[in-house]
Amino acid sequence: MNIVNKLNKAQQFLLQSRFIDADNELNKVLKKVPNNFQALALKSVISIKINDKHVVIKNFKKALDNYFDLNLGLNFVQYLIENKELNLALDINNKILTIDNHNQIARLNQAKLNIMQNSNDIAFDRFKQLILDFPDFISGYISYGYNLNRLKRYDDAIQIYKKGLEKFPKDFNLIFNLGISLNNNQDFNEALKYLESAYNLNSKDENLILTLLACYIKSGLFKKARELINKLEKIIKTHNNIIPFQRGTIEMNEGNYEVAIKYFKYAINKDYDDVESHFNLGLVYLKKFDYENVDSEYRFRMKRTLGKKYGLFDDFKEEKITQDDDVLISKEQGIGDEILFVRLLPSLLSNFKSISYICDDRLKDILEINLSQINIIPLSLFHKESGEKYKNYKKINLGTIFRFINPNDCLKSIPFWLPANQNKFLPEKSNRSKIRIGISWKSNNENIGKRKSLNLQLLYDALSLNENNELINLQYGDISKEIKSLKLKNKKEIIVPEIDYFNDINNLFSLVNECDLVVTTSNVTAHIAGALGKKTFLLLPKRYGRIWYWNTNENRSPWYQSIKFIEQEEDQSWDSCIKKIKLETLN
After folding, report:
1. Contact 374, 357 (CB under 8 A)
2. HSE (CB half, 13 Å, CA atoms) of 163?
3. 171 has pLDDT over 90
4. In a domain, 522, yes or no
5. 538-561: per-residue pLDDT in tens?
6. Are the C-beta atoms of 212 and 228 separated by less than 8 Å?
7. What does the H/E/C string look like for 69-109?
8. How confident is the model at residue 128 (pLDDT cuts 50, 70, 90)?
9. What residue numbers bound the domain in which 459 lies?
10. Domain tally for the chain?
């Protein structure tokens, strides 16, 4: 048997993607010469295509034990990383680095493996050193920025990609990934510059087109979005739901709800398991306040693989719940949405024998005071208690209440809440004409927070024109730099009571209750003020970042009777809102 001819034949089969034929030829070689490195190396690469992980690892190890070839080792490490075999990947990669400590790919893999082990600081130090030692290694910039972006360190990722572009100004991947990071950072105008530049380099990349499309929608550029979706329709070869889903998304964001419904229903008819089409159809019904149709679609939030956790229970159980049943209801999402929905629970009491509600621990006291007929269970206590205690309860999530009630029938009759305590954080007024205005100016929502937020100085300037206005901080999060900067520029100070705005919800309710007026962006402060019935001016973005329950042609939401909307006239500009706030509070 001519070994060389067999090896050449196997390589030819490999080039033709005839992997089984190639493997058969290599088996003949190995039967004759069991330790032939070339045959072992080719067999290990081919086994990736035709065998399970166990066989692949066995073949690679056998080849490398015979002769530790660096390129084969690097291929093995890449395979192990993709299959999350971290310990073995580290072992092989360390052997490579022992032989060649300057191997760029091995050092890159070392940083990737550190990320996979959650050793992020070590990994980023290695990424940083890698691009310092090898400034022309483009994969170093791409992987470094990718992992920063994945961990939501968008500003850092943006800087790394820009540094890479100084070396490689025309590189498609750097430009595209920079656009992604800017888009994730909600800097849509800047993101469009790079995404459109990447599109000019490669107008047929589906992932790029979908990212650019999303950016157009978020920026309110619906004409461009439609033009782009028409181009995408010509590129996509497979018959899937991308096109109708994206068309539905465009129409939903532009407010053309009936058209959006048709597109989402079309996508669902093609593939009933299209979770995102169902979920977005549910959102359209919510935006329309069409509560009768919400439940069958909105329940698909439970099957989404990205985003927040929606409740603890299975929303797809269609079991009948009667007046003889004890019902256990789980919280969903954040504090704000929880306050919004939970006020409806008393209206459900006539439907069931009893209601027990699993709440965010921070809301326990507030809910016990204001929902005295509901059995309130803090989430931490529920996790500690035995499941046996609730085994006979019918279980649903808070958003599932649309299955049993139409909010329009009861929203106007919901009583305003009381704080859980009578704590006072503000001194007695020295002058009765003083107006205490609680202010909150930003949202920390990682997806839409920047679109809902404005500069503190703008709000301060508008509200400080009236000398009788006292400004009270209601903003949660780290605001120390903003408050310090404000003090340096202005004489009148914002009163900042010493409470834990994030965790001490009881005292935050009390503080909001002490205010005469609340001026806030769309965040938990708006929900607290609305639940208390506090007169509130709510500053809202015109398009992207506007949540469905603030979606109405009137200047008030049916969910909170005391909140008045002050909406942007021009998308992404707060100028009109500031002018209106000045007029509303000047006298």
Report:
1. yes
2. 20
3. yes
4. yes
5. 999 988 889 999 988 788 889 999
6. yes
7. CHHHHHHHHHHHHHCCCHHHHHHHHHHHHHHCCCCHHHHHH
8. very high
9. 435-585
10. 3
